[in-house]
Amino acid sequence: MRFLVITFLIIVLSAKNQKTFAQEVEHNFEMPAQKTNCDSLNLNSLDEDGKILAIEAADFRSKQDIKLNRMDGFQAAWFYSCNNNSGYIIAKIDNKKRVFENIGVNTWNEFISSGDFLGYIDKNFDKK
Predict the structure, then answer these.
(1) Containing domain of residue 109, as a range?
(2) Cβ-contact 69, 92 below 8 angstroms
(3) Is 38 helix (H, G, I), strand (E, B) or coil?
(4) How confident is the model over 95-106, as pLDDT tens digits?
């Protein structure tokens, strides 16, 4: 009987401590469209660092992020959307940020569910 109780407690406690990728995603904010300035964002003449700075400084309708505690490889990604349909992903890989444009919200959701973030980026995002 004691063995069953101990086994039950171990199972309950281990299940309670498990974390899924979806739990690591933060839905930082959602703003009404009239309080944003992202629709006037012009990134055409900017290099990648300039695009990242402009995106991070703009007010978007929604922003989500996922972060992993790693020293190298994939470390974090942020999804910025002005219309809740598509937007930008800024990914931090090996302490360097990269930007991907015109990413659909469904693609973002697939990305955060994939578990293989670098593989998903290599396979599905246009590298610029």
Answers:
(1) 21-124
(2) no
(3) helix
(4) 999 999 999 999
